[in-house]
Design goal:
With 279 residues, the chain is of the alpha/beta class. 51% of the residues lie in helices and 12% in strands. α1 packs parallel to α6. It is globular.
């Protein structure tokens, strides 16, 4: 039996990339040597990347994307390499995005800003440019951030897209981002999203008050095998959780949140009112 090293994707972005590389390789039934032959590296080198002993290079990432057929997708190793290099992704988020690209159901709750997957690029740019002005990121990092978001959105527009169940706090509609024109187009985009056959969009209104079960954003994924993945983050770190003992209560709370929120028809009516500037 070959000694198989246990991976700890939560340890660092590099470790998360290595774990995802192993998963995609094994899904195709390839050994490390077989993948190495396809991308021009030794199996030993592939092993070092998977176990986090070596960081990937740009060439390695591009060759791997081509071999695995994930170039220009949310699972692109080149894109993740660039994000790691520029340090604009929270630790844990690359691992989450890998799961997100395979999910059959995506449940999100957001406070204050429209969830990333539903943002127009103008809206996303307004947020990124604000961070540039504050000195939090560079202009190049802002471009990488928006490009990464666009790739995530494209990944979900696949032949069999996941079911998207989105709840937004009312503050997401009321907080102006990017000026009136940007907000108008963003709100229009939300209405169009609500018309999709694989979407459920709800707003949790202010009057729910203390009955709202979450005070932080929530990301919940259902994978093809019906297992659950949760993602949460603080200002400095993100964390992926697959433990049923902690994820199941989040799902229960999400169902309670949906029960307290507006119906999709009432949600669309509120968005229309927000577009017109009426209370």
């Amino acid at each position: 039996m070959v000694n198989r090293k246990e991976l700890h994707p939560e340890a660092s972005p590099q470790a998360a990339l290595g774990a995802r590389l192993r998963r995609l390789r094994e899904e195709r039934g390839w050994t490390q040597d077989e993948l190495g032959t396809r991308i021009g590296y030794s199996g030993r080198h592939v092993s070092a990347i998977e176990t986090g002993l070596k960081p990937p290079t740009l060439r390695f990432s591009r060759q791997t994307d081509a071999a695995l057929g994930v170039a220009e997708t949310g699972e692109s190793f080149e894109r993740e390499w660039r994000e790691m290099r520029h340090g604009i992704l929270l630790e844990g988020f690359p691992e989450y995005v890998g799961y997100e690209a395979r999910a059959v159901e995506i449940r999100l709750f957001q406070i204050g800003i429209v969830p990333g997957l539903l943002q127009t690029l103008e809206y996303a740019w307004a947020l990124a440019n604000a961070d540039v002005k504050r000195g939090s990121i560079t202009p190049q990092q802002a471009e990488e951030r928006v490009s990464f978001l666009a790739a995530r959105q494209e990944t979900l527009a696949r032949a069999q897209p996941p079911m998207l169940l989105i709840v937004m706090d009312e503050s997401c509609l009321r907080r102006p981002i990017g000026g009136p024109d940007v907000m108008d187009r963003q709100l229009t985009s939300l209405i169009e999203f609500a018309e999709l056959p694989n979407s459920v969009l709800q707003v949790c209104p202010y009057e729910v008050g203390e009955r709202r079960p979450f005070n932080l954003p929530v990301n919940l994924l259902t994978l093809p095998d019906r297992s659950l993945v949760a993602y949460a983050e603080s200002h400095a770190q993100g964390h992926v959780d697959r433990e049923g003992s902690s994820v199941v209560p989040l799902m229960r709370g999400y169902h309670q949140l949906q029960g307290e929120s507006l119906t999709q028809a009432a949600t669309v009516a509120m968005i229309e009112q927000a577009r017109k500037g009426t209370p």
